[in-house]
Specification:
Radius of gyration: 18 Å
Largest sheet: 12 strands, mixed
Distance between the termini: 28 Å
Number of strands: 20
Shape: globular
Structural class: mainly beta
Number of helices: 2
Strand content: 35-45%
Order of helices and strands: EEEEEEEEEEEEHEEEEEEEHE
Length: 293
């Protein structure tokens, strides 16, 4: 079951030590170490001039399937839009809409039946504009309740869209490059890794929090990943948190297998929180996704 589980307790700074091993020192963008891609090459990118359905698959499921989220994921609510903030003038837009009290949104992934795109190690980045929200008249309103994400899940080596090389979540891991939940966490963004032999021993480590102030503009979010560590970057600079391979096997480091990319916009739920009653739709824009190795 490749499904998003809750990390709701991450919304509180300096989390309970029983649940997480965490670094609580995160550097502002102008102080972090600058991204160095020397020795790496761009191996794949999508600039979203179109939505390539041979690469991206819509996941379809009912509201409430995970995390008490309010949206239904449908095969739709994605479009290529003209956007003068995007580098090539085009961007992918994921739209969440409230239709007669029922929220509908989209979740897409690079794993599909015709040949998935998954990667092991490298630097994975997206240029993203966090969701803007509108009322039914088209006026900008508070985006409380949105929960966008840019994240990675383990490829199933058996080709069955299953759980990954080490078994059912969280055994095969999860890498959250970006999550944002203004209703519960104000302007914070999160980068988080999940692991553990089974659900009862699930642990997560926040490797980035409280490093962003939402401004309605594009920013880059990325993760540098090798056999020894995972390190998140924002606008080309390290945000100061690193998760290290302790050499203890898959129970703390399942991140030695290929992972695929997911982009989605959830509404409400455990981390998304209370939804602004004036919000009729929210728009989540992605300029590009790139993979360097």
């Amino acid at each position: 079951m490749k499904i998003k589980r809750t990390i709701g307790s991450i919304a509180v700074a300096c989390l309970a030590s029983a649940a997480v091993i965490t670094s609580c020192c995160f550097l502002p963008n102008d102080e972090g170490e600058k991204l160095d891609l020397s020795g790496m090459s761009l191996v794949w990118e999508d600039n979203f001039s179109t939505l390539d359905t041979a690469t991206w698959t819509h996941e379809v499921w009912a509201a409430g399937k995970v995390n008490n989220e309010k949206q239904q994921y449908i095969k739709g609510n994605t479009q290529i839009v003209d956007d003068d903030g995007a580098l090539d003038g085009k961007a992918l837009r994921i739209t969440a809409k409230n239709e007669s009290g029922a929220w509908k949104s989209a979740r897409i992934k690079t794993e599909n039946a015709t040949g998935d795109k998954s990667w092991k190690y490298g630097y994975i980045e997206a240029r993203i504009k966090l969701p803007l929200a509108y009322d039914s008249a088209g006026n900008l309103v508070s985006n409380n309740g949105v929960w966008p994400a840019f994240w990675l899940m383990p490829h199933d080596p058996n080709g069955k869209n299953g759980d990954g090389a080490y078994g059912t979540w969280p055994a095969s891991g999860e890498i959250d490059i970006l999550e944002y939940s203004p209703s519960t966490s104000q302007d914070k963004c999160y980068s988080t890794v999940h692991y553990g032999a089974d659900n009862a021993s699930h642990k997560y480590t926040s490797i980035g929090a409280d490093y962003f102030k939402a401004d309605g503009k594009y920013h880059t979010f990325g993760i540098k990943w090798n056999k020894d560590s995972l390190e998140p970057y924002y606008d080309g600079r390290s945000i100061g948190g690193i998760y290290f391979n302790k050499g203890e096997g898959y129970e703390t480091w399942p991140f030695d297998q290929p992972f695929y990319i997911i982009l989605n916009l959830a509404i409400g739920g455990d981390l998304g929180g209370a939804i602004n009653s004036d919000m009729a739709k929210a728009e989540y824009d992605i300029d590009y996704v790139r993979v360097y190795q």
